[in-house]
Amino acid sequence: MSKPLIILLGDQLTLSLPTLRQAPENAVVALCEVASEAHYVPHHIHKIGVFLAAMRHFAQTLRDKGFTVHYSALDDPDNTHTLISEAERLASAYDCNHIQAVRPGEWRLWQAMQNRQDTALPWQLFEDDRFFTTPEDFAQWAKGRKQLRLEYFYREQRKRSGLLMEHGEPAGGQWNFDHDNREPLPETFESPRPPQHQQDALTREALAVAQQHFGHHMGTLETFNWPVTRRQALVDMRHFLDHCLPDFGRYQDAISDTDPFLFHSRLAVAMNIGLLSPREVCKAAETCYYTGSAPINAVEGFIRQILGWREYVRGLYWTQMPNYKRENRLGFTRDLPAFYWDGNTDMRCLQRAIEMTIDNSYAHHIQRLMVTGNFALLCGVKPEALCDWYLAVYADACEWVELPNTLGMVLHADGGLMGSKPYCASGKYIDKMSDHCQHCRYSPKQVTGAKACPLNSLYWHFLETHENKLSQNPRMKLIYGSLARMKTEKRDAMRQQAQAFLAKLDTAPGYGDAIHTDGYDGKTRPNPEATS
User: Fold this and answer.
1) Which of 81, 99, 164, 322 could anchor a disulfide with 171, C-beta 3.0 to 4.6 Å?
2) By C-alpha distance, which of 277, 298, 271 is closest to 286?
3) Contacts 24+ apart (CB under 8 A), 279-287
4) Which GO terms describe its molecular function (predicted)?
5) Domain extent listing, the chain
């Protein structure tokens, strides 16, 4: 008689999972807190707290639904602390004859599971159908294309899903309203405060475990306010739709010196771990357009992030791994700047982005791409170091979504597979889209000198350094024309300014060497705040 052990991962907390939908009555469902997954990068304590609390709540939900559940807690003496071995230990203990699993969010785990399909206790693997597309769907779309551009993928997704489509045409008469979504914040504005989630006994217990084992990691649980149940996630979704979505579009690229959330949804965590489905979120946003409660530019821009970008980066991840992770087309070698762990820099935009990250395990997409990401790009930070940092510090960072965004979009390390040009910018961009510069010791209007914004000379130094690889890019010919027309003395001064800054930049060596296997070596990662 067939008796499966169904292993659920921390980002698969939904009853709609295919293994649960078709589970026989004798199935045993297992959720496992294992040290190898908590330690291989120094995850922010909020991120660890989200997973521990949400997993424990979902285990209770399963029990309430009548499932037989085994929960391996971090402190259980029999816990083997690696996912594969713990699943196989439990399958043997419950006399199960095979293990069922849904595709995880990381290639390393998927490979480890595939390697166990033909063992005496075989693993049966299922596709994760919570997404709009499968990796096979993306592979079929990408077949024969020289460039894998988001816009073309997104349009097909709109047609397939029917979202914001009217009689075969896009709602509002066009596919993309991005040109309406680039307004800086007005001098006076008020954004809605996120709902404050109450912590029940189960959540408090999980957070106490996180504090006990990971209290030295980035962040403090005093500011923890993430949804850890479906009910809390639905509250966050309703709050966004009612109070934030109407203004989300026009201000989605803006940055505030004081407000970490603005009009952003903060729903990625809930979607990524399974508390919300991307379909229900997109449908709810679409309804706001048709009921007149949010404008088309806001709704289209939001749906494009989920239906378009989220699906696109996942498809790219699964079709390009494992070689994608080793890409470094611009040859970057610098270690991560040390202040990425504590925010101790006098560059105001970076200081605030990192302080907000420390406080909330969150920064919105422009802070990630155009502040911490842009600086790392201009400084030539090696991809493995920056990728591990993003994976560690953000609560919504699963590798399938983090790696392409960081390696491809931020660092242009894939040679343009994702982005048609590097997203590099000088201090002028930060000055236009934020109020940081008025609080900074540096001036975005100066390129050289003691008060010059470092981003300015670093920007031109980056362009000059990579001129051979980038100057033929059609989208960069104009800026390289400007560089070519500069007087030699000005170029020399900018180069010297940038080189002097880089020579003094403290780095945090030792990051970017994460343990990307299922094995755990028993060593606790070093405290980033103690690393210099």
Assistant:
1) 164
2) 298
3) 279/132, 281/237, 281/306, 282/161, 282/163, 282/306, 282/307, 283/163, 284/237, 284/241, 285/241, 285/245, 286/163, 286/164
4) lyase activity
5) 4-126, 135-194+229-320, 326-512
pTM beyond 0.85: yes
Buried b vs exposed e over 133-142: b needs ≥16 C-beta within 10 Å? bbbebbeebe
- The helix or strand, by DSSP H or E, that contains position 439, with its residue range, turns out to be none
- Determine the Cα–Cα distance for residues 85 and 34; give it in Å rounded to an integer: 10
As a CATH number, domain 326-512 is 1.10.579.10
Other C-beta atoms lying within 10 Å of the C-beta of residue 122: 13
Distance of alpha carbon 58 from alpha carbon 31, whole angstroms: 9
Write the pLDDT tens digit of every residue in 8-41: 999 999 999 999 999 999 999 999 999 888 888 9
CATH of domain 4-126: 3.40.50.620
Residue with tokens 């304590």: 45
3-state SS, residue 292: coil
Distance, in Å, from the CA atom of 253 to the CA atom of 46, rounded to the nearest integer, reads 25
Q: Which residue has the tokens 């490979």?
A: 111
